[in-house]
Automatic annotation (TrEMBL):
It comes from Siminovitchia thermophila. This is CCA-adding enzyme. One of its GO terms (molecular function) is CCA tRNA nucleotidyltransferase activity. ATP binds at G27, R30, R111, D154, R157, R160, R163. HAMAP family: CCA_bact_type3. Residues 169-227 form the tRNA nucleotidyltransferase/poly(A) polymerase RNA and SrmB- binding domain. The keyword Transferase applies. Belongs to the tRNA nucleotidyltransferase/poly(A) polymerase family. Bacterial CCA-adding enzyme type 3 subfamily. Keywords: ATP-binding, Hydrolase, Magnesium, Metal-binding, Nucleotide-binding, Nucleotidyltransferase, RNA repair, RNA-binding, Transferase, tRNA processing.
Amino acid sequence: MKEPFLSALPLIHEIEAAGYEACFVGGAVRDFLLGRDIHDVDIATSATPAELKTIFSKTVDVGIEHGTIMVIQNGKSYEVTTYRSEGDYQDYRRPESVTFVRSLYEDLKRRDFTMNAIAMDKEGNFIDPFAGRLAVEKKVIVTVGSADERFQEDALRLMRAVRFVSQLGFHLEKQTEKAIKEHVDLLRHISVERITAEFEKLLDGKYKKNAFELLFHTGIYKRLPSLFNQEHVVQSVTKLEISPLKELDIWLLALYFSGEHPVTTLKKWRLPSKKIKLLSMALSYLMLRKDHFWSRDELFTAGKEIALLVETAFLTIKREDVQLAHLLDKYESLPIKSLKELTVNGNDLIRWTGKQSGPWIGKVLHEAAQAVINGEIANHKQEIRSWMENCRLI
Ligand SMILES: Nc1ccn([C@@H]2O[C@H](COP(=O)(O)OP(=O)(O)OP(=O)(O)O)[C@@H](O)[C@H]2O)c(=O)n1
């Protein structure tokens, strides 16, 4: 056995010494079998939360209504969950109340996929009643028992399936895929925040191209909080598969190609406001390089807003997001970030030319702003005027 299982092992010994069962379960066991990094281990037990509290002196009620408590030992915290049974699901979401059971089999039976329904005891032996290890070996995602029932119990599992495809490079078993297609409508019962959380994990997966193909193929894509232009998204994602770009960068690309105002799109996904601002700013920079940017004033305002928050935003940028950070740096160093910052305005143009105001003013100012941004001229009134005259814009 290896870390982080080893440091959690004393908990299992203590629970067993008190006369109950305990073992490792869930994603950690799956990832251990796959040789992936393991962050947190989950312990399942036949002891109820009340019984666990008599065994351990330091506990925190993190999700006691679902049977989960956190045990603090040697400065570390471990989630311990009482065996639960199925049948308490309401409205296609996770159950609001659960029934505690004493049987590990019952607990594993209510789990989503066979690869997630493997337990490991203190000696490193696997308890695998649904052939989860075989699924891991074959790289297949298959529900425990009836696919219809598992998805109807908790429709978020539709998203989880595709997220696992992206993270693990597995494929969906036939019946599981068929059931996803049939139950895609159930996603309307799931909160946007939970869908977004899964989608973001999907965006960080290595096999996102496969995952995106599945999103389209199963119809999940149409149920997502907002749509991106399919063709461009697929193209970007395909390219990204061989690049180091991560979740934030993909948002950026997808937003770049979407017809909608990016802030509107991101709000639909209920992303945290800090992230919305960070992305808006980076996108503003990208758009500044494109001609159509200036017709999108609101986008620009969003970009300016984030300039104020950039310090905080930088603190949240992960190392792998350096590309985005680089982009933000560039944005910050632009000579002007809005048409309003140009030293020439519409009144100047009317005065200089004697012409009537009209759409031509916007076009001329736009061209001058691009020239300033591209470093062709400085943002000085006289210099801009001479440049405009030379270019026969006025
Ligand atoms: N909708 C869900 C969510 C979770 N589970 C079960 O609860 C375990 C723990 O769930 P969670 O920590 O959310 O996901 P992991 O599978 O551990 O994956 P990861 O840690 O990579 O998010 C899963 O392995 C699975 O057995 C489930 O059956 N149905």
